[in-house]
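Q: Hi! First time doing this. I have a protein sequence and I read that you can turn it into a structure. Is that right? Here it is:
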Amino acid sequence: MSYDLGFFAHRQGLTLEDVRKAYRQACAGELPDEGADDATLAQFTAALESRYPQLSALRDDQIDDSPWSGDFDFGARHLIVSMSFSRAEEVGAYILQLLNTHALVLYDPQSDQAFLGDRAL
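A: Yes, that's right. Below is the predicted 3D structure, encoded as structure tokens:
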């Protein structure tokens, strides 16, 4: 079992319901990638990978040390990550640091909550 998080570009008026729907569509491969890629999302992903590379970027002998339970699901409008529960606190702390400089919406499907910074949607 993994601990999953979704990240989305922020837009004015975005609600928890919007984010929940986008997350479900992304998981099902049904979230349209229309429009330009979001630079903030790409920069956030690069920063996250600089500390915790995706599994596909690791050698076989490094995979057991990774917090990830699968590669990232990255699209023009979303990023979904899956990590092991045992590393969620560690990786989550780093993600919160990154979100201080990358204005993205975070969706936690385990608690069905969405945040922009420390503010709940």
